[in-house]
């Protein structure tokens, strides 16, 4: 039976990679987007071309009521929600801590932390009722080791790790698994501000000699969403080519 998965922030980047990987498995995918409907529609077409089914849903994950409506939409379209990928996230420009203000912290935590909280809170009554589910939260290597001049982003991603570990223990009796993926340097729009020389310098620091792709990350997420990872929960999977 095909699984149904909601992926937040799936119109591009790692979310898109996850949608395509799940499409190859024949999954039903809800592609969440915030602003760019056209990009979400393009991803949906790709998912369908790979053998999956796809619907798009526009919602700001920092709005709990919007997350509830998204879950209701998924159940109406496909009958259940078997997996949730909390991928939507934002990253501000690098700045020393003393040059960041509360407004910036509030904005990052609203999406990266409370977006994860909102979507999880919205889907849990359904997953608990069917006694199954897989939740994959997107953290970052900076949430593990910390990043200089990235205190707000690192803190938000560390919060996701703590949330993942706690929820994995809490939800295990309901047969709901909760894991997190902590990517390193990935070729996405979030890192588009880096110049060619910066990228080459980072590649030289990575033992595998390359930066990651959305396909690399998507394949891991698809595995964590599937029954193939049925005995894995509470794990923080660092995927950085050995960088950190």
Give your account of this protein's structure.
The protein has 244 residues and is an alpha/beta fold. It has a single domain (4-239), classed as Rossmann fold, CATH 3.40.50. 48% of the residues lie in helices and 16% in strands. Helix 1 (13-24) packs parallel to helix 2, helix 3 packs parallel to helix 5 and helix 4 (102-112) packs parallel to helix 7 (151-171). It is globular, with a radius of gyration of 17 Å.
List its traits:
244 residues, alpha/beta, Rossmann fold, seven-stranded parallel sheet, 9 helices, 7 strands
What is the structural class?
alpha/beta
Question: Any idea what the radius of gyration is?
Answer: 17 Å
What is the mean pLDDT? 96
What is the CATH architecture assignment?
3-Layer(aba) Sandwich
Provide the CATH topology.
Rossmann fold
What would the principal axes of the Cα set say about the shape? globular
Helix fraction, binned, reads 40-55%
Oligomer: single chain
Q: Helix-strand pattern, N to C?
A: EHEHEHEHHEHHEHHE
| Total beta strand runs | 7
**Biggest sheet character:** 7 strands, parallel
The side-by-side strand order for the widest beta sheet comes to 3-2-1-4-5-6-7
Structural domains: how many:
1
- CATH class wording: Alpha Beta
Count the DSSP helices: 9
């Amino acid at each position: 039976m095909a699984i149904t998965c909601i992926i937040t922030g799936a119109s591009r980047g790692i979310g898109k990679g996850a949608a395509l990987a799940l499409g190859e498995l024949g999954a039903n995918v809800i592609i969440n987007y915030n602003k760019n409907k056209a990009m979400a529609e393009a991803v949906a077409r790709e998912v369908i071309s790979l053998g999956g089914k796809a619907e798009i849903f526009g919602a700001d994950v920092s709005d709990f009521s919007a997350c509830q409506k998204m879950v209701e939409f998924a159940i109406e379209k496909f009958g259940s929600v078997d997996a949730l990928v909390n991928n939507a996230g934002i990253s501000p420009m690098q700045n020393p801590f003393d040059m960041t203000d509360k407004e910036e912290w509030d904005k990052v935590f609203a999406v990266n932390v409370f977006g994860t909280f909102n979507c999880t809170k919205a889907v849990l009554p359904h997953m608990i009722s069917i006694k199954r589910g897989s939740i994959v939260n997107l953290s970052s290597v900076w949430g593990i080791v910390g990043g200089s001049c990235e205190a707000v982003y690192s803190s938000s991603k560390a919060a996701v790790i703590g949330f993942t570990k706690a929820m994995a223990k809490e939800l295990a009796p309901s047969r709901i698994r909760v894991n997190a993926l902590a990517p390193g340097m990935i070729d996405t729009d979030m890192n588009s501000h880096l110049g060619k020389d910066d990228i080459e310098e980072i590649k030289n620091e990575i033992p595998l000699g390359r930066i990651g792709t959305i396909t690399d990350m998507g394949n891991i997420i698809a595995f964590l969403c599937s029954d193939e990872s049925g005995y894995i929960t509470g794990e923080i999977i660092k995927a950085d080519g050995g960088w950190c």
